[in-house]
Write a structure and sequence with these properties.
The chain is an all-alpha fold and about 260 residues long. It is about 75% helix and about 0% strand. The longest helix has about 90 residues. The chain is elongated, with a radius of gyration of 43 Å. The relative contact order is 0.06. This is J domain-containing protein.
Length: about 260
């Protein structure tokens, strides 16, 4: 999770030598306490945080939105959700209700994601993959330094920098998943549109065939009647022709006085 900016006077002390595990543990605890103390912030600061430049990708990570560690229990996530939802609720920020509504929806969406066991498990898979990729990246950097005959110490040996590297990798993986999701949605919409156009074409074809059949049936009787009339007309002509051929003019008689 991205560290919350803290005032200079409240900043953490310099990182102690790695070999002093007890001192390091105390240092990390102090850092965590500072983050916890400043994690709530003011309503305006929370709204600004949730709508900051790049928030489209930052807010893909529900742990980042709710400002909790991925391994935090679900009760902690629920508690933080309630706290943030109250802070950014539009009713509590009527002077900036439009932005507050957007921030509230982001918080609510993140909680719904973590509340659901299946979606939460998928988020944890992203976190684990981010750690695995970060560890692999560190291993490759060490190998390269050794091949070059250099000190294999890397920046990520610093726990804070290691955590930041995991955070960056986590953001990248969430962004990759979102891009794949959107691409899939686009392909699905295009496929749905193509199928619908094909269905409309088929429906139009069936409609035209039905119309043709209907017109054909309706015009059949006219064709039959026309044919009968034609046949009847032909018969009359033949009959007249026969009568004409069989007609014999009367014999000429001499005129008598």
């Amino acid at each position: 999770m991205e560290s919350i900016p803290v005032p200079p006077e409240a900043g953490p002390p310099p990182l102690p030598p790695p070999e002093k595990e007890e001192v390091l543990s105390e240092f990390l605890t102090e850092v965590k306490e500072i983050e916890t103390r400043d994690s709530v912030l003011t309503p305006k600061q929370q709204i600004d945080r949730l709508l900051r430049p790049g928030s489209t990708y930052f807010n893909l990570n529900p742990f980042e939105v709710l400002q909790i560690e991925p391994d935090a229990p679900i009760d902690a996530a629920k508690k933080m959700y309630r706290r943030l939802s109250i802070l950014v609720h539009p009713d509590k920020n009527q002077d900036d209700s439009e932005r507050a509504q957007k921030a509230f929806e982001i918080v609510n969406k993140s909680w719904k994601c973590l509340e659901n066991e299946e979606s939460r498990a998928k988020c944890m898979e992203v976190i684990e993959e981010a750690k695995g990729r970060t560890d692999l990246m560190i291993s490759e950097k060490r190998k390269k330094l050794k091949r070059e005959g250099k000190d294999p110490t890397v920046d990520e040996d610093d726990p804070v920098k290691y955590k930041h590297s995991v955070y960056v990798m986590t953001m990248k993986l969430f962004a990759d998943l979102e891009r794949k999701k959107r691409n899939l949605e686009v392909r699905t919409m295009e496929e749905t549109k193509r199928k619908r156009e094909q269905e409309i074409e088929e429906e139009e074809k069936v409609h035209l065939e039905k119309e043709w059949q209907k017109n054909f049936e309706e015009s059949r009787q006219n064709r039959v009647d026309s044919w009968k009339a034609f046949q009847a007309g032909s018969s009359k002509k033949e009959h007249k022709a026969k009568k004409f051929k069989s007609f014999k003019p009367p014999k000429h008689k001499a005129e008598t006085r």
